[in-house]
Amino acid sequence: MTDWLIETDDLATLLETEPDADRVVLDCSWYLPETGKHAIEDFRAGHIPGARFIDLADISDPESDYVNMMPSPERFADAVGAAGIGNGTEVIVYDAGYVSARLWWMFRTFGHNRVRILNGGYRKWVAEGRPLEDGPARDVPRQDFVAGPVEGRVASIETLRDVTANGGAAIIDARTAAKFDGLEGSGYPGVASGYMPGAINTPWQLFFRPAPDHRFVSADEARRIFEDRGVDMSGPVITTCGSGVTASILGFMLEQVGHADWTLYDGSWHEWGQQPDTPKLVKGDT
Protein backbone atom coordinates (compact mmCIF):
# COMPACT_ATOMS: atom_id res chain seq x y z
CA MET A 1 0.00 0.00 0.00
CA THR A 2 1.12 3.58 -0.59
CA ASP A 3 1.30 6.41 1.93
CA TRP A 4 -1.93 7.96 0.62
CA LEU A 5 -3.76 6.42 3.60
CA ILE A 6 -3.75 7.17 7.32
CA GLU A 7 -5.24 4.85 9.93
CA THR A 8 -7.58 6.01 12.67
CA ASP A 9 -5.02 5.17 15.39
CA ASP A 10 -2.42 7.33 13.69
CA LEU A 11 -4.78 10.26 13.21
CA ALA A 12 -5.86 10.11 16.85
CA THR A 13 -2.21 10.24 17.90
CA LEU A 14 -1.47 13.22 15.66
CA LEU A 15 -4.46 15.16 16.98
CA GLU A 16 -3.26 14.58 20.53
CA THR A 17 0.48 15.11 20.09
CA GLU A 18 0.60 17.75 17.32
CA PRO A 19 -2.49 19.92 17.84
CA ASP A 20 -0.87 23.01 16.31
CA ALA A 21 0.57 21.42 13.18
CA ASP A 22 -0.26 22.85 9.75
CA ARG A 23 -2.78 20.10 9.18
CA VAL A 24 -6.46 20.17 8.21
CA VAL A 25 -8.84 17.27 8.76
CA LEU A 26 -11.47 17.76 6.09
CA ASP A 27 -14.94 16.21 6.16
CA CYS A 28 -16.16 15.85 2.56
CA SER A 29 -19.27 13.76 3.23
CA TRP A 30 -21.92 14.22 0.55
CA TYR A 31 -25.37 13.03 -0.51
CA LEU A 32 -26.81 12.76 -3.99
CA PRO A 33 -29.11 15.78 -4.50
CA GLU A 34 -32.21 13.61 -4.96
CA THR A 35 -31.95 12.37 -1.37
CA GLY A 36 -32.99 15.80 -0.12
CA LYS A 37 -30.30 15.61 2.58
CA HIS A 38 -27.17 17.68 3.14
CA ALA A 39 -24.09 16.37 4.88
CA ILE A 40 -23.46 19.68 6.66
CA GLU A 41 -26.28 18.70 9.01
CA ASP A 42 -24.48 15.45 9.83
CA PHE A 43 -21.27 17.41 10.38
CA ARG A 44 -22.95 19.72 12.87
CA ALA A 45 -24.37 16.69 14.70
CA GLY A 46 -20.92 15.15 15.11
CA HIS A 47 -17.49 15.29 13.49
CA ILE A 48 -13.85 14.53 14.24
CA PRO A 49 -12.60 17.23 16.64
CA GLY A 50 -11.20 20.22 14.81
CA ALA A 51 -12.37 19.06 11.39
CA ARG A 52 -13.57 21.46 8.71
CA PHE A 53 -16.29 20.74 6.16
CA ILE A 54 -16.27 21.13 2.40
CA ASP A 55 -19.24 20.63 0.09
CA LEU A 56 -18.60 18.83 -3.21
CA ALA A 57 -20.97 21.30 -4.89
CA ASP A 58 -18.72 24.18 -3.85
CA ILE A 59 -15.71 22.62 -5.55
CA SER A 60 -17.49 21.58 -8.75
CA ASP A 61 -18.09 23.61 -11.89
CA PRO A 62 -21.43 25.44 -11.50
CA GLU A 63 -21.56 26.35 -15.19
CA SER A 64 -21.21 22.83 -16.59
CA ASP A 65 -24.09 20.88 -18.12
CA TYR A 66 -22.69 17.81 -16.38
CA VAL A 67 -22.69 17.12 -12.66
CA ASN A 68 -19.67 17.20 -10.32
CA MET A 69 -17.26 18.42 -12.99
CA MET A 70 -13.84 19.77 -12.04
CA PRO A 71 -13.96 23.50 -11.20
CA SER A 72 -11.62 26.21 -12.31
CA PRO A 73 -8.35 26.40 -10.36
CA GLU A 74 -9.55 29.69 -8.89
CA ARG A 75 -12.80 28.22 -7.58
CA PHE A 76 -11.01 25.27 -6.01
CA ALA A 77 -8.36 27.50 -4.45
CA ASP A 78 -10.98 29.82 -2.99
CA ALA A 79 -12.93 26.98 -1.38
CA VAL A 80 -9.97 25.16 0.16
CA GLY A 81 -8.28 28.40 1.21
CA ALA A 82 -11.45 29.30 3.13
CA ALA A 83 -11.07 25.98 4.97
CA GLY A 84 -7.63 27.06 6.20
CA ILE A 85 -5.64 25.08 3.65
CA GLY A 86 -2.49 26.55 2.16
CA ASN A 87 0.02 25.00 -0.21
CA GLY A 88 2.07 23.68 2.69
CA THR A 89 -0.86 22.24 4.63
CA GLU A 90 -1.20 18.52 5.22
CA VAL A 91 -4.77 17.52 4.34
CA ILE A 92 -6.51 14.43 5.72
CA VAL A 93 -9.87 13.82 4.07
CA TYR A 94 -12.66 11.65 5.38
CA ASP A 95 -16.33 11.00 4.74
CA ALA A 96 -19.15 8.68 5.72
CA GLY A 97 -19.47 7.12 2.28
CA TYR A 98 -17.43 7.20 -0.91
CA VAL A 99 -16.29 10.76 -1.69
CA SER A 100 -12.82 10.95 -0.09
CA ALA A 101 -11.04 9.53 -3.13
CA ARG A 102 -12.58 12.27 -5.28
CA LEU A 103 -11.08 14.93 -3.00
CA TRP A 104 -7.75 13.08 -2.97
CA TRP A 105 -7.74 13.12 -6.78
CA MET A 106 -8.80 16.77 -7.00
CA PHE A 107 -6.08 17.95 -4.64
CA ARG A 108 -3.44 16.02 -6.56
CA THR A 109 -4.79 17.18 -9.92
CA PHE A 110 -4.45 20.76 -8.68
CA GLY A 111 -0.85 20.10 -7.66
CA HIS A 112 -1.24 19.43 -3.93
CA ASN A 113 0.24 16.07 -2.93
CA ARG A 114 0.16 16.51 0.86
CA VAL A 115 -3.16 14.71 1.08
CA ARG A 116 -4.20 11.42 2.66
CA ILE A 117 -7.47 9.55 3.14
CA LEU A 118 -8.59 8.40 6.58
CA ASN A 119 -8.88 4.65 6.10
CA GLY A 120 -12.35 3.56 7.19
CA GLY A 121 -13.49 7.16 7.41
CA TYR A 122 -16.01 8.57 9.82
CA ARG A 123 -17.83 5.27 10.28
CA LYS A 124 -14.73 3.45 11.54
CA TRP A 125 -13.83 6.39 13.79
CA VAL A 126 -17.31 6.25 15.39
CA ALA A 127 -17.36 2.45 15.63
CA GLU A 128 -14.14 2.63 17.65
CA GLY A 129 -15.72 5.03 20.13
CA ARG A 130 -13.34 7.88 19.36
CA PRO A 131 -14.13 11.47 20.42
CA LEU A 132 -16.45 13.71 18.43
CA GLU A 133 -17.49 17.32 18.63
CA ASP A 134 -20.70 18.91 17.42
CA GLY A 135 -21.69 22.28 16.10
CA PRO A 136 -20.17 24.23 13.21
CA ALA A 137 -16.51 24.07 12.29
CA ARG A 138 -14.21 26.23 14.38
CA ASP A 139 -13.31 29.59 12.90
CA VAL A 140 -9.95 29.50 11.13
CA PRO A 141 -8.07 32.15 9.18
CA ARG A 142 -8.26 31.94 5.42
CA GLN A 143 -5.06 30.69 3.77
CA ASP A 144 -3.64 31.46 0.37
CA PHE A 145 -3.81 28.40 -1.85
CA VAL A 146 -2.48 28.42 -5.40
CA ALA A 147 -3.92 25.64 -7.55
CA GLY A 148 -1.55 24.49 -10.27
CA PRO A 149 -3.32 22.01 -12.57
CA VAL A 150 -1.28 18.92 -13.44
CA GLU A 151 -1.54 17.88 -17.07
CA GLY A 152 -2.55 14.36 -18.01
CA ARG A 153 -4.86 13.58 -15.09
CA VAL A 154 -8.25 14.15 -16.77
CA ALA A 155 -9.61 12.24 -19.76
CA SER A 156 -11.95 14.10 -22.12
CA ILE A 157 -14.90 12.77 -24.06
CA GLU A 158 -12.77 13.05 -27.21
CA THR A 159 -10.27 10.65 -25.66
CA LEU A 160 -13.05 8.23 -24.78
CA ARG A 161 -14.49 8.42 -28.29
CA ASP A 162 -11.10 7.47 -29.67
CA VAL A 163 -10.45 4.67 -27.18
CA THR A 164 -13.90 3.08 -27.59
CA ALA A 165 -13.40 3.10 -31.36
CA ASN A 166 -9.71 2.25 -31.65
CA GLY A 167 -8.49 0.90 -28.31
CA GLY A 168 -5.29 2.02 -26.66
CA ALA A 169 -6.42 1.94 -23.04
CA ALA A 170 -8.51 -0.15 -20.67
CA ILE A 171 -11.77 1.46 -19.55
CA ILE A 172 -13.11 0.49 -16.12
CA ASP A 173 -16.53 1.60 -14.89
CA ALA A 174 -17.25 1.88 -11.15
CA ARG A 175 -21.06 1.80 -11.35
CA THR A 176 -23.21 -1.05 -10.06
CA ALA A 177 -23.78 -3.96 -12.42
CA ALA A 178 -27.47 -3.08 -12.83
CA LYS A 179 -26.70 0.46 -14.00
CA PHE A 180 -23.78 -0.66 -16.15
CA ASP A 181 -25.80 -3.40 -17.85
CA GLY A 182 -28.73 -1.08 -18.49
CA LEU A 183 -31.07 -3.14 -16.32
CA GLU A 184 -32.04 -0.08 -14.32
CA GLY A 185 -32.07 3.63 -15.02
CA SER A 186 -28.90 5.66 -15.19
CA GLY A 187 -29.93 7.61 -12.09
CA TYR A 188 -30.16 10.86 -14.05
CA PRO A 189 -33.39 12.06 -15.70
CA GLY A 190 -33.07 12.08 -19.46
CA VAL A 191 -29.79 10.19 -19.48
CA ALA A 192 -29.75 6.85 -21.30
CA SER A 193 -28.63 3.67 -19.55
CA GLY A 194 -25.86 1.31 -20.57
CA TYR A 195 -22.09 1.24 -20.98
CA MET A 196 -19.33 2.21 -23.37
CA PRO A 197 -17.93 -0.33 -25.84
CA GLY A 198 -15.01 -2.15 -24.28
CA ALA A 199 -15.67 -0.92 -20.74
CA ILE A 200 -15.20 -3.37 -17.88
CA ASN A 201 -17.62 -3.18 -14.98
CA THR A 202 -15.63 -2.94 -11.73
CA PRO A 203 -18.05 -1.76 -9.01
CA TRP A 204 -16.45 0.53 -6.45
CA GLN A 205 -18.04 -1.38 -3.54
CA LEU A 206 -15.66 -4.29 -4.20
CA PHE A 207 -12.78 -2.25 -2.81
CA PHE A 208 -14.11 -1.74 0.72
CA ARG A 209 -14.24 -4.12 3.65
CA PRO A 210 -17.67 -4.63 5.26
CA ALA A 211 -18.92 -2.82 8.35
CA PRO A 212 -17.81 -1.97 10.94
CA ASP A 213 -14.38 -1.77 9.30
CA HIS A 214 -15.09 0.17 6.08
CA ARG A 215 -11.40 0.30 5.17
CA PHE A 216 -10.03 -0.17 1.68
CA VAL A 217 -9.05 -3.71 0.77
CA SER A 218 -5.35 -4.55 0.67
CA ALA A 219 -3.25 -3.93 -2.42
CA ASP A 220 -3.02 -7.67 -3.05
CA GLU A 221 -6.78 -8.05 -2.89
CA ALA A 222 -7.29 -5.03 -5.14
CA ARG A 223 -4.93 -6.51 -7.69
CA ARG A 224 -6.88 -9.77 -7.64
CA ILE A 225 -10.12 -7.86 -8.18
CA PHE A 226 -8.72 -6.07 -11.22
CA GLU A 227 -7.27 -9.30 -12.60
CA ASP A 228 -10.49 -11.24 -12.01
CA ARG A 229 -12.41 -8.56 -13.89
CA GLY A 230 -10.01 -8.83 -16.81
CA VAL A 231 -8.47 -5.36 -16.49
CA ASP A 232 -5.30 -5.05 -18.59
CA MET A 233 -2.85 -3.09 -16.46
CA SER A 234 0.03 -3.39 -18.90
CA GLY A 235 -0.86 0.01 -20.32
CA PRO A 236 -3.05 3.07 -19.73
CA VAL A 237 -6.32 2.77 -17.79
CA ILE A 238 -9.25 5.20 -17.85
CA THR A 239 -11.68 5.19 -14.93
CA THR A 240 -15.31 6.23 -15.25
CA CYS A 241 -18.60 6.00 -13.36
CA GLY A 242 -21.87 7.95 -13.21
CA SER A 243 -20.46 11.42 -12.55
CA GLY A 244 -16.73 11.09 -11.87
CA VAL A 245 -16.93 10.54 -8.10
CA THR A 246 -16.62 6.78 -7.59
CA ALA A 247 -14.29 6.59 -10.62
CA SER A 248 -11.77 8.16 -8.25
CA ILE A 249 -11.96 5.07 -6.03
CA LEU A 250 -10.84 2.90 -8.94
CA GLY A 251 -7.99 5.30 -9.61
CA PHE A 252 -7.01 5.31 -5.96
CA MET A 253 -6.86 1.51 -5.95
CA LEU A 254 -4.81 1.49 -9.15
CA GLU A 255 -2.31 3.69 -7.34
CA GLN A 256 -2.36 1.30 -4.40
CA VAL A 257 -1.30 -1.59 -6.63
CA GLY A 258 1.43 0.52 -8.20
CA HIS A 259 -0.27 1.39 -11.49
CA ALA A 260 0.12 5.15 -11.94
CA ASP A 261 -0.74 5.21 -15.65
CA TRP A 262 -4.42 6.12 -15.34
CA THR A 263 -6.71 9.04 -16.02
CA LEU A 264 -10.25 9.83 -14.89
CA TYR A 265 -13.03 10.61 -17.36
CA ASP A 266 -14.55 13.52 -15.51
CA GLY A 267 -17.79 13.73 -17.51
CA SER A 268 -18.33 9.99 -17.06
CA TRP A 269 -21.73 8.53 -17.92
CA HIS A 270 -23.58 11.77 -17.19
CA GLU A 271 -21.84 13.31 -20.18
CA TRP A 272 -21.50 10.21 -22.39
CA GLY A 273 -25.11 9.15 -21.90
CA GLN A 274 -26.47 12.52 -23.06
CA GLN A 275 -24.67 12.60 -26.39
CA PRO A 276 -26.81 11.54 -29.36
CA ASP A 277 -23.90 9.99 -31.22
CA THR A 278 -22.03 8.05 -28.50
CA PRO A 279 -22.42 4.27 -28.62
CA LYS A 280 -24.34 2.91 -25.64
CA LEU A 281 -24.55 -0.81 -25.07
CA VAL A 282 -26.77 -2.79 -22.73
CA LYS A 283 -26.47 -6.36 -21.48
CA GLY A 284 -26.95 -8.76 -24.35
CA ASP A 285 -25.50 -6.48 -27.03
CA THR A 286 -22.46 -7.70 -28.90
Automatic annotation (TrEMBL):
Its EC number is 2.8.1.2. It comes from the Bacteria. PROSITE patterns: RHODANESE_1, RHODANESE_3. The keyword Cell membrane does not apply. SMART domains: RHOD. Keywords: Pyruvate, Repeat, Transferase. Residues 19-134, 165-281 form the Rhodanese domain. GO terms for molecular function: 3-mercaptopyruvate sulfurtransferase activity; thiosulfate-cyanide sulfurtransferase activity. PANTHER family: SULFURTRANSFERASE, THIOSULFATE SULFERTANSFERASE. This is 3-mercaptopyruvate sulfurtransferase. It comes from Roseisalinus antarcticus.
